[in-house]
């Protein structure tokens, strides 16, 4: 039986394609070219994160891995509560002053060894605080890479209170926290979003009742591979095992991810600068409004639990570059009038609402200029940019400890003036 010409042509095409794939796979292996895909985000076996119904993702309790990204290569160990910290007991030991620090990647500080993080330095430094003399000091690190203020609030509600902290510190990083809190500005949607609902018929006996918060939990039904357009390629739709075995698919995936990273730089070039400026549009006005509302909401919940609260604004690398010309060139290039606008805005909001705010960037800049050293940046990343290096964590931890010590001393003095200790019988 004679085959039709098109059948033969199709067979020849398939044979040629198969031969090309085999040769390509052999060639890529021979050249040592490989781009292993990240762990399947839909599995529960990631190196150190798991799905979380309230926060989107969270560190996995007792997880251990090796950090090889920006910063120093070091072992990452999560404690039994699922945070990058040394082991802690849920029950607070007697005669202990316990601080819980909320924040994002600056607080979690995967980029340096655990004992070099700002919270670890802070815990050690507070041991020299005369206002806390005679007490054990614990500074618990609840920072998680990529978190915004909404996720930090959820961390407080669902994970922090069981540890009975005396003081809650919110480490606020203006560089992306504002954007993280508002869906139209954020590209990674595996997170909750808060919005205000204003009751049209408020209870006159409770004027605050008309200001209610609604939480958007739509991320719970969001397939992980759809969480971030810029982080996933079309190849990721294929079975994970197939991509792990095929160097050609890995190369195709890497090419698409590289292209998307460039697209991200174009799409978010202005967004990543706008936090330095007065809100340029309605989205940024709304993002700031939600962010300030969340800070106040955290304060209210902390006060209701009988604990103390303060905000620390985290420095951005351009704010604390030790070279004045570098800072000036950056401001001129992006038409920035004031590098400390976001810190000053949060501080002014704090004064308005009675929330203590420590602006960390300005004293860090003084240290960086006086020493001529960068507090941000690592050899395997952009120089003087990115996250705090070991020295940056050290200086930040000491400065935060000083602020906490001063606050405790002031509160102790206030308590003594209100309830003076009687002398004699």
Describe the 3D structure.
- By secondary structure, this protein is α/β, with parallel strands linked by helices.
- The chain contains twelve helices and eleven strands.
- It has helices spanning 5-30, 105-108, 118-126, 149-160, 177-180, 240-245, 247-267, 282-304, 324-333, 341-353, 361-371, 390-418, and strands at residues 49-52, 56-59, 64-67, 74-77, 96-103, 136-143, 167-172, 193-198, 211-216, 308-313, 357-359.
- The protein has a five-stranded parallel β-sheet with strand order 6-5-7-10-11, sandwiched between helices. A two-stranded antiparallel ribbon has the order 1-2.
- A hairpin with a 3-residue loop joins strand 1 and strand 2 (56-59).
- Helix 3 packs across helix 12.
- The radius of gyration is 25 Å and the shape is elongated.
| Average pLDDT level | 89
Number of E strands: 11
Number of helices: 12
How much strand content do the residues show? 5-15%
User: Topology as H/E string?
Assistant: HEEEEEHHEHEHEEHHHEHHEHH
Uncertain segments are: 206-210
Query: Ends: how far apart?
Result: 119 Å
Largest sheet: 5 strands, parallel
Overall geometric form: elongated
Estimate the helix proportion, in percent.
25-40%
Strand order of the largest sheet: 6-5-7-10-11
**Rg, Å, rounded:** 25 Å
Coarse structural class: alpha/beta
């Amino acid at each position: 039986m004679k085959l039709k010409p098109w059948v033969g042509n199709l067979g020849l095409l398939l044979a040629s394609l198969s031969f090309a794939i085999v040769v390509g796979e052999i060639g890529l292996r021979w050249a040592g070219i490989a781009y292993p895909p990240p762990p399947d985000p839909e599995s529960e076996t990631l190196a150190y994160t798991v799905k979380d119904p309230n926060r989107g993702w969270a560190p996995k309790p007792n997880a251990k891995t090796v950090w090889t990204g920006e910063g120093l290569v070091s072992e990452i160990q999560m404690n039994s509560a699922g945070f990058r910290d040394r082991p802690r007991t849920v029950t607070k030991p007697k005669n202990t002053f316990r601080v819980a620090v909320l924040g994002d990647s600056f607080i979690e500080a995967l980029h340096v060894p655990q004992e070099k993080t700002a919270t670890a330095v802070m815990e050690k430094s507070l041991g020299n605080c005369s206002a806390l003399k005679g007490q054990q000091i614990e500074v618990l690190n609840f920072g998680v890479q990529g978190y915004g203020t909404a996720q930090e609030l959820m961390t407080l509600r669902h994970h922090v209170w069981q540890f009975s902290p005396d003081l809650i510190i919110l480490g606020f990083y203006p560089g992306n926290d504002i954007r993280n809190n508002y869906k139209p500005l954020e590209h990674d949607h595996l997170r909750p979003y808060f919005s205000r609902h204003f009751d049209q018929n408020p209870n006159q006996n409770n004027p605050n009742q008309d200001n209610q918060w609604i939480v958007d939990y739509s991320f719970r039904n969001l397939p992980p591979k759809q969480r971030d357009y810029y982080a996933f390629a079309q190849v990721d739709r294929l079975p994970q095992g197939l991509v792990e075995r095929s160097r050609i698919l890995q190369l195709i995936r890497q090419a698409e991810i590289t292209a998307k990273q460039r697209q991200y730089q174009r799409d978010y070039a202005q967004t990543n600068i706008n936090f330095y400026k007065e809100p340029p549009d309605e989205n940024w006005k709304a993002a700031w409004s939600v962010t300030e509302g969340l800070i106040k909401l955290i304060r209210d919940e902390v006060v209701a639990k009988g604990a103390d609260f303060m905000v620390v604004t985290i420095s951005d690398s351009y704010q604390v570059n030790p070279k004045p010309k570098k800072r000036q060139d950056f401001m001129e290039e992006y038409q920035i009038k004031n590098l400390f606008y976001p810190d000053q805005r949060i501080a002014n909001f704090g004064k308005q609402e009675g929330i203590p705010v420590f602006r960390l960037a300005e004293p860090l800049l003084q240290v960086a200029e006086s020493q001529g050293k960068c507090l941000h940046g690592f050899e395997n990343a952009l120089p003087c940019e990115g996250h705090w290096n070991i020295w940056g964590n050290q200086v930040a931890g000491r400065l935060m400890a000083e602020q906490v010590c001063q606050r405790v001393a002031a509160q102790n003095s206030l308590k003594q003036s209100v309830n003076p200790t009687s002398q004699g019988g």
